[in-house]
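User: Some background: our group keeps a shared notebook of sequences we're curious about, and every so often someone picks one and asks for a predicted structure to add to the entry. Today it's my turn. The entry only has the sequence so far, pasted here. Could you supply the structure so I can complete it?
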Amino acid sequence: MVQKIPLYQHIANLAGNKTLVLPVPAFNVINGGSHAGNKLAMQEFMILPTGASSFKEAMKMGVEVYHHLKENKEGLELQKAAIEKAGYTGKVVIGMDVAASEFFSEKDKTYDLNFKEENNDGSNKISGDNLKDLYKSFVSEYPIVSIEDPFDQDDWTTYAKLTGEIGQQVQIVGDDLLVTNPTRVAKAINEKTCNALLLKVNQIGSVTESIEAVRMSKRAGWGVMASHRSGETEDTFISDLSVGLATGQIKTGAPCRSERLAKYNQLRLGSRKSSVLPQSTPERSSEHQWSPTEPRVPRAWRKKMRMFPH
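Assistant: Of course. Here's the predicted structure to add to the notebook entry:
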């Protein structure tokens, strides 16, 4: 029997999810890491317009901050300045995808922050504990709410230390750590390794397993961020996936280029349909206790996050 319903509704039905949510977009605005032509060791620096009252306003904030980024400086400092210039201090916050496995040395168990330097003498190799302390200093100095892949994918111990120390105020996201695999998600929940899942359907291989990973994450009180992959096309499936599974967050690049804008435009279309999601939502308080069907974010910054619920 053919059901004439939107894709996001079909996904929600598969997951038994009664709450539809437009996600907060995490715009990747500065690239570092192995594939960027600069010396930044950390892979992605993102902005999240958590103070927006609607998805439309979130897009506006993202575009305006993005266009204030014109130089290649230290990522966090530049983002902070761009947010201030755009007039969105307190409304736009920062996320990072470190991809630390890229600069982890299995040989001596260190992280080389100068791994992209031509004449690297190894003087900037640091231990996992020292890298952990570096993240803590970032969080105290900049409006950071999300750190993805802060350590090597097999460095479970240091992950757990960081989550234990700052997990109440910052989202620690597992991508390489979890690979959207329910088995690894279960282990991370048990060991309190992180507190958020990066959802990539083609990483685990099926929608069924992806739904299970999301369910497990939400039951544990984790955040969930749907994500694109490298080599994306203009296919908009992950936009519907994010709404249908009420992930609350989506990462699909900067607000430019057709393969990225197609996904944001799909979400904007959804935001204009009264049967889907309203344009605004009342302010949430830090005391608000979310139901199991609602997206989860660290308690300390719930009051900053708008989820644009149905």
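Suggested note for the entry: The CA atoms of residues 69 and 296 lie 30 Å apart. Residues 274-310 have pLDDT under 50 and may be disordered.
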